[in-house]
TrEMBL record:
CDD domains associated with the record: GATase1_CPSase
Boundaries of every Carbamoyl-phosphate synthase small subunit N-terminal domain copy: 1-131
Pathway: Amino-acid biosynthesis; L-arginine biosynthesis; carbamoyl phosphate from bicarbonate: step 1/1; Pyrimidine metabolism; UMP biosynthesis via de novo pathway; (S)-dihydroorotate from bicarbonate: step 1/3
Protein name: Carbamoyl phosphate synthase small chain
Organism (species): Tumebacillus permanentifrigoris
Matching InterPro entries: Anth_synth/Amidotransfase (IPR050472), CarbamoylP_synth_ssu (IPR006274), CarbamoylP_synth_ssu_N (IPR002474), CarbP_synth_ssu_N_sf (IPR036480), Class_I_gatase-like (IPR029062), CPSase_GATase1 (IPR035686), GATASE (IPR017926)
GO biological process: 'de novo' pyrimidine nucleobase biosynthetic process; 'de novo' UMP biosynthetic process; glutamine metabolic process; L-arginine biosynthetic process
Residues annotated as binding L-glutamine: S45, G219, G221, L247, Q250, N288, G290, Y291
Complex and partners: Composed of two chains; the small (or glutamine) chain promotes the hydrolysis of glutamine to ammonia, which is used by the large (or ammonia) chain to synthesize carbamoyl phosphate. Tetramer of heterodimers (alpha,beta)4.
First-tier enzyme category under EC: ligase
Annotated spans, CPSase: 1-171
Gene3D superfamilies: 3.40.50.880, Carbamoyl-phosphate synthase small subunit, N-terminal domain
Signal peptide: none
Length: 363
């Protein structure tokens, strides 16, 4: 079935609809990864977004039962140049097409994604519809492009407390702002017992769980829309080591008085170079964010530890007096680079120090 991606700037891209035969509306963003489409489809950080894949062939290894980052997708559309109908992988259980249909997500393939991405890079992220060609003809000139909700954390967070990992040397409470499953998996791989809690969980409840450390997860939307969470973050940081990833990083910065702003088209890919200012090393990182911490607004209590080599934006901070640190990128990325796995070792070292068993991680 023929369909269109119609952008708010008036441009239209044609293709063939796959997945659910329905209309999709969202912020149109692009991801430059060659692999990992299953993780992208199920990353809650893509809530209310139509994701364009820049790699030309997507779906060639199908969908398997183990590489999900969440139980369901939160994006509103998926756009490719080509979508493979006959995947080849020993673990594949279904095609991309059948997964999208099963989950009620509309897709569009056969699109000139090179031209589309060049437009997004020029104009910035744009709102758009994926729509059937027959409907597009009927609605021509009448489509509205309303603002999208920016407070999405409460939409995607877990509804209850649960234990992801029952055993481990360190007990970590993971605040779920839209957490990817591999954050908890990575913590478990570094010897942590992980309890996942809703984003709005109180300090009293978290304290009663007797954690050794606090993990602040990734998540969707505008970080400024989550200011109600900042007092909890500040209070927890007074008692426990805190590690923030992506949105968690932005919320730590906001909690201490910094500001954030929206990037023109965001960072979404698996090969972004980031420089560690403490060691001078450059890491290849996986990223997915549309907002960044404003460097000029950072208070003196926070030190910039990492910067993006491409555009100089802040990619990491740490508190000068407390065991609190964060990165904008994804050290748990799977599939993706593993350059930043040592950050989990840094976190476990801080928890050991809190227990009086070891010195803090050397920087």
């Amino acid at each position: 079935m023929k369909g269109y991606l119609i952008l708010e700037n008036g441009h239209t891209f044609s293709g063939e609809m796959i997945g659910a035969v329905q209309q999709g509306y969202g912020e149109v963003v692009f991801h430059t990864g060659m692999t990992g489409y299953q993780e992208i489809l199920t990353d809650p950080s893509y809530a209310n977004q139509i994701v364009v894949m820049t790699y030309p062939l997507i779906g060639n290894y199908g969908i398997n039962g183990t590489d999900f980052e969440a139980k369901r997708p939160w994006l509103t559309g998926f756009v490719t140049s080509q979508a493979c109908t006959k995947p080849s992988h020993d673990q594949q259980e279904k095609t991309l097409h059948s997964y999208l249909e099963e989950q009620g997500i509309v897709g569009l393939t056969g699109v000139d994604t090179r031209s589309l991405v060049r437009m997004i890079r020029q104009h910035g992220s744009l709102k758009g519809y994926i729509i059937r060609a027959t409907e597009a003809e009927l609605l021509q000139g009448t489509l509205a492009f309303p603002d999208l909700p920016r407070d999405l954390v409460k939409k995607v967070t877990t509804t209850g407390i649960y234990q992801h990992t029952a055993t481990g040397d360190h007990h970590v409470v993971l605040l779920d702002f839209g957490a990817k499953a591999n954050i908890a998996n990575s913590l478990a791989a570094h010897g942590c017992r992980v309890t996942v809690v809703p984003a709005t969980t109180s300090v009293e409840i978290i304290r009663a769980l007797q954690p050794d450390g606090i993990m602040l997860s990734n998540g969707p939307g505008d970080p400024q829309e989550n200011r109600d969470l900042l007092p909890v973050i500040r209070e927890l940081a007074q008692e426990f080591p805190v590690f923030g990833i992506c949105l968690g990083h932005q919320l730590i910065a906001l909690a201490y008085g910094a500001q954030t702003h929206k990037l023109k088209f965001g960072h979404r890919g698996s090969n972004h170079p980031v420089k560690d200012l403490l060691t001078g090393r450059v890491h290849i990182t996986s990223q997915n964010h549309g907002y960044t911490v404003d460097d000029a607004s950072l208070p003196s209590v926070l030190q910039v530890t990492h910067v993006n080599v491409n555009d100089g934006t802040v990619e990491g901070v740490r508190h000068r007096a407390l065991p609190v640190f964060s990165v904008q990128y994804h050290p748990e990325a799977a599939p993706g680079p593993e350059d930043a796995r040592a950050l989990f070792e840094q976190f476990t070292a801080l928890m050991l120090e809190r227990k009086g068993q070891s010195l803090a991680y050397a920087t």
